[in-house]
């Protein structure tokens, strides 16, 4: 007899049930044998420094009106995504199944491997590099990283700035790495030096 799916399980097909789901078309298959062992923390706001709007969701779903703000012209045509987006109030969205490859890292290298999209999970925090993040975002991030590590063989957490130095600077100097390190309780070697 086939058992019905367990709706109380935290994960189904790479989707986290505690996140609000909105599918992005910007993803692809991971390479054969890819070990999902890296979490990449980013920051984003659209327009930059403006919070609470729909710009990030629209960017990740290819529905952003490029004429709605002058800044949007500079990113017109970009097709990007992340697995997760954490709003300032801690609300969690998911755009790509963690079993799939989201388009968040770009040209990147970390722990001796290039193309970090292949084996990472990307988490965007609503914010601006160099600006502080909210306590609610850290609470959500800690819970999410812990849940990801229970489902995938995560060994490392890094910022976009660590996997694409010189090209990217997020989440930035005001991101509280000691909070994340202490809150997760993982080996110090799991984090950037």
Key phrases:
single chain; 20% strand; 193 residues; alpha/beta; Lysozyme-like
Give an overview in words.
The protein is an alpha/beta fold and 193 residues long. The chain has a single domain (15-184), classed as Lysozyme-like, CATH 3.40.80.10. It is 18% helix and 20% strand. The chain has four helices and twelve strands, in the order E-E-E-E-E-H-E-E-E-E-E-E-H-E-H-H. Strand 1 (11-12) and strand 2 form a beta hairpin. Helix 2 crosses helix 4.
pLDDT average, as an integer?
Answer: 95
Distance between the termini: 52 Å
Question: Based on the structure given, which CATH architecture is correct?
Answer: 3-Layer(aba) Sandwich
Structural class: alpha/beta
Largest sheet: 6 strands, mixed
Count of separate DSSP helical elements: 4
Strand order, largest beta sheet? 3-7-6-11-5-12
Corresponding CATH superfamily: Peptidoglycan recognition protein-like
Shape designation: globular
Radius of gyration: 16 Å
Summarize the amount of helix as a percent range. Answer: 10-25%
CATH class: Alpha Beta
Strand content: 15-25%
Which blocks of ≥5 consecutive residues have pLDDT under 50?
A: none
> How many strand segments?
12
As for the CATH topology, it is: Lysozyme-like
Secondary-structure element series: EEEEEHEEEEEEHEHH
Number of structurally distinct domains: 1
């Amino acid at each position: 007899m086939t058992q019905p799916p367990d709706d109380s399980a935290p994960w189904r097909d790479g989707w986290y049930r505690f996140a609000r789901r909105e599918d992005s078309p910007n993803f692809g298959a991971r390479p054969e044998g890819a070990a999902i062992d890296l979490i990449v923390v980013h920051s984003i706001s659209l327009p930059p420094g403006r919070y609470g709007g729909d710009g990030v969701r629209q960017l990740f779903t290819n529905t952003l009106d490029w004429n709605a703000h002058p800044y949007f012209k500079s990113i017109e045509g970009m097709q990007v995504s992340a697995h997760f987006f954490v709003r300032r109030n801690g609300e969690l969205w998911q755009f790509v199944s963690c079993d799939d490859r989201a388009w968040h890292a770009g040209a990147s290298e970390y722990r001796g491997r290039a193309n970090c999209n292949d084996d990472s999970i990307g988490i965007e925090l609503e914010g601006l590099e160099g600006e502080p993040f909210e306590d609610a975002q850290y609470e959500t991030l800690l819970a999410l990283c812990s849940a990801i590590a229970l489902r995938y063989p995560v060994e490392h957490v890094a910022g976009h700035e660590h996997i694409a130095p010189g090209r990217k600077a997020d989440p930035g100097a005001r991101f509280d790495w000691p909070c994340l390190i202490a809150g997760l309780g993982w080996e110090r070697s799991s984090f950037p030096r």
